[in-house]
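Lecture 7 notes: from sequence to structure.
We start with the chain below.
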Amino acid sequence: MAYGSLNKVILIGNVGTDVKIKDINGLSIAKVTLATTELGSNGGARHVDWHVLTFYGKRAENAAQYLTKGSKIAVEGKIRQNKWKNKENKMVYETSIIAEKFEMLGKKFSDPDMPDVPNEIESQHEAEITPLNDLDIPF
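Predicted structure tokens for the same chain:
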């Protein structure tokens, strides 16, 4: 059996910013950052990577409703590279994770009163997302 290619990523980390959500032509689009941490070989040194997560449609609305800075989540998706011209007419490049599924892993420590939410949050009736062109998402 021959395979083409695979674009899949799974990350577990902490949300680094509150969700920013926009509506573009009736489609909800949300963005948030996620920090993943690797411990060094001596157990003390750490390396933190920051990832941009992008959610579309119902997933964007769920992300805006449930995710806050500090939330621990697992996210599954694919890597997407975007480019567009900003207001100063300069090219902007961004690599983001298109979130296809995410799962809440626990309550953040600073907010013990955070309501319980379903562990796995994904759209059950959402069609495959069609990518927008480069000029449609100037975050």
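Points to note: Residues 109-130 have pLDDT under 50 and may be disordered. The chain has one domain: 9-121.
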